[in-house]
Amino acid sequence: MSERRSAAAADRLPVLKTHKVYVGGKFPRSESGRFDRALAPDGTPIANICRCSRKDVRDAVTAARAAQAGWAARTAYNRGQILYRIAEMLEGRSGQFEALLAAGGRAPDEAAVEVQAATDRLLHYAGWTDKFQQVFSSVNPVATSHFNFSILEPMGVVGVLAPQSPLLGLVSSIAPAIAGGNTTVVLVTGSQPLPATTFGEVLNSSDVPGGVVNILTGRRDEMLAPLAAHRDVDAVLLCSPDPDVARSAEIEAVHNLKRVAVRAHEDWADVQSPYEITDLQEVKTTWHPIGS
Amino acid sequence: MQISTATASFESPPIDAVGVEERVARLCSRSIKKDAKLQALHLTLSMIDLTTLEGADSEGKVRQLCAKALQLHAALPDLPHVAAVCVYPALVGVAKRALEGSGINVASVATSFPAGQAPIEIKLLEVRRAVEAGADEVDMVISRGRFLAGDFAYTADEIASVKEACGEAHLKVILETGELGTLDAVRRASDLAMRSGADFIKTSTGKIKPAATMPVVLVMLEAIRDHYRRTGQKIGMKPAGGISTAKDAIRHLVMVRETLGQDWLDPDLYRFGASSLANDVLRQIVKQRSGIYQSFDDFSL
Hints:
The structure holds two protein chains of two kinds.
Chain A: H1 2-11, E1 18-19, E2 35-39, E3 45-50, H2 54-73, H3 76-92, H4 94-103, H5 108-128, H6 132-136, E4 138-140, E5 146-154, E6 157-161, H7 168-179, E7 183-188, H8 194-204, E8 213-217, H9 220-229, E9 235-239, H10 243-253, E10 259-263, H11 274-278, E11 281-289
Parallel strand pairs in A: 1-3, 6-7, 6-9, 7-8, 9-10
Antiparallel strand pairs in A: 2-3, 4-5, 5-11
Helix pairs in contact in A: 2-9, 3-5, 4-5, 5-7, 9-10
Chain B: H1 17-28, H2 34-47, E1 48-51, H3 59-70, E2 84-87, H4 92-98, E3 105-109, H5 120-132, E4 137-141, H6 144-148, H7 152-166, E5 170-174, H8 183-195, E6 200-202, H9 214-231, E7 236-238, H10 246-260, E8 272-274, H11 277-290
Parallel strand pairs in B: 1-2, 1-8, 2-3, 3-4, 4-5, 5-6, 6-7
């Protein structure tokens, strides 16, 4: 019986999953129809992934823009609940993520630690959603008869060049952006895209409204320039240790003077702070006349 | 007023709904790029009836819309102007003054738009008032209730009387295809309108969904083609409602070109009724010229 089963397994052609991209709450393929192979460290193919084009970037920005006002209008408390829900779902699928990280060459115990750290990071920002306003807003002393105060508002649509760290870095770049009411278009261009595409499936089952996070896979040189130049993108978060990448994207970003934030970390273990949220916020100061 | 017409009894050909869907799907798969796309986008702008038909419309809103019609985008002074501005009868005078000498027509909806549920005398009075105020084009609605009840003679008489009340003004007849139910009814209403004096036939008021779907427009274009072959008379077409992207507009142009030929690719014979289409077209034109994806924030309302 067991011999027959193993013989059948040897003859069987494996079914390679095509990991689709996550745009507007749906899982389309690239409009270009192109795909790449994701490879294990020994060179065997383990999955197909979409190779997105600039038109996929355009469509993702449209989805992110459509979702932005509604996401920002949710209460900070509700955004915290949803971030917490992502953490719950990630914890529930920790085994799958550990296997994906291990397939990418991570030692099993390291993979388990990374999945736990990613889950805890989501909790960190879930807690901050309804607190950073109180910490960073201010009432300002002025010499005229005005009540002067500053509050933070989300930038809007944030383009993210995801770091090479396939899960912890990914979560650490997305979570602070959406915690503050931004929506994101995330370019996954590293050698290990599978945790990111699978994280899209987690987001889709976590009450995150469609379009708040959009995840595209493909090549940096095809997607980053159109995203950085896009006039409907309000900020870009460039997670790359390569200064040339940041420089070229900054040049594209001048068209509408969008904010550029650069993260050059290779190790994302300690990258968590409310300043990650405020870097993607705009300060609005109001002068309110008082007295006579 | 009753006008005797011979239109009460006539046959419209039956419509093959599956065939229409297939033809539309095939035409929608055309790829229009680069220079051809830019040309199509410019043509689309020149065919737009810039429309505001809200209960909240004011003189200021209409003046602002007219300013937009006169200058679509300050950064691109070489663009064509739109074909017309479409408003309610009460605001025709305001639009007429704002557009004086520009070559842009003023269109007015009339005949108790959008429901059309008013006595015929009141409808005709409304048409006359709109024309007196300066409307160059009148968009009327047919009485869908009477039409669907099979009272085709009434509908034909109604259109003929409105045409008479229009005088010099061009008459566009709105069929409100979303309420007609079947493509057969759309074809019959199109034939009826053209035989009764319509200068244009128009899909919808924009108040009801679905509005200008591709199959409905194709059926109407085929009706126009058959009417032209029978009488030699060129009737115009105006899809309205639901066309908000440049991509949709280009698909419509492809369909017009393939069904009616080059002659109809002209603002005198083809119009888009739209409020948000113009800005998407402008966005695509700037993208085409600069290579950079644009934001709606950079274009006026």
